[in-house]
Amino acid sequence: MMEIRARQKESIIILDLIGRIDVDCANLVEAVAQCLRDGYTDILCNLEEIEFIDYMGISVVVIVYKEVMNAHGRMKLCNVPAHIRNILCIAGLDRVIGMYPDETIALDSFKEDKIIEDIKKMQLRRRFKRLPIDIKIELKAKGARNPVCLKLDVLNLSAIGAYIFGCNQFKLGDEVILKLKLPPKDDLLELEAKVVWLPDKHVQPHSYPGMGVEFSNVSRDMQQKLVEFIERNLSFMSSD
After folding, report:
1. How does pLDDT run across 157-180, given as a tens digit for each residue?
2. Where does 79-198 show beta strands of DSSP type E?
């Protein structure tokens, strides 16, 4: 059985793999699954001491990679010996899984991914217009046993998020569910969201208490309704 040694660098788990990646390496699946259960979704596999890989081993690598992707994580390889890299390239995995010549470069690539991801999110936010508005919503914590339903105000709205005024009961990263009715037809929308911004009471006193949320798991139809509502009302405002 392949030996696995786990260590951690910041939020990244590094798995040092030793021996052979073959039919007897089910412990790799178990190790990656445990990382995901523990909340670690960035995984770097160090193959420096791998001597051999066969087609069954390649299947195991594919399985664990898919598990990480399904958990919205990232898995990369480093220090891949030349003969192992050749086999992985023949299998086409070099086009799917990032392979790096050493650990330092691999770890830096995780940071670069985060920077690129943040830039893309910022571009996405800028692409969707924000509508200043004052409408009532119902808000509750997602997954709570006895969620308290709060009646609050949305002060601006976009197709990917909103600013909710009048609440200081949540912290960054909390998941919530909000219900709102879009006038004039009062179409009821129920949206999942995550808290991504909290105003500082002293720096932004006019925005406090409140929170910025980013919508998640929004269907295309629901996002289209939001876009159409925002565009329609922005056009009314510009014509006044």
Report:
1. 988 899 999 988 899 999 999 999
2. 98-100, 131-141, 150-157, 161-165, 175-182, 187-197
The encoded tokens of residue 107 equal: 């770890």
Residues in the chain: 240
CA-wise closest residue to 107 among 116, 118, 98: 98
pTM reported for the whole predicted model: 0.54
CATH 2.40.10.220 for the 128-239 domain, yes or no: yes
DSSP secondary structure string for all residues of 44-100:
EEEEEEEEEE-HHHHHHHHHHHHHHHHTT-EEEEES--HHHHHHHHHTTGGGTSEEE
Mean pLDDT in residue range 57-86:
95
Sheet holding 98-100, edge to edge: 3-9, 12-21, 42-53, 74-78, 98-100
**CATH 2.40.10.220 in the chain, residue ranges:** 128-239
Q: Which residues pair with 3 in a beta bridge?
A: 18
pLDDT in tens, 135-147: 999 999 988 777 6
Task: Say which residues have a Cβ less than 8 Å from residue 136's Cβ, sequence separation at least 6.
Answer: 151, 152, 153, 154, 180
For 7, which DSSP code? E
For the chain, give the percent of residues with pLDDT over 70: 92
Question: Domain 3-113 classified CATH 1.10.3720.10?
Answer: no
pLDDT, tens digit (0-9, with 9 covering 90-100), for 23-40: 999 999 999 999 999 999
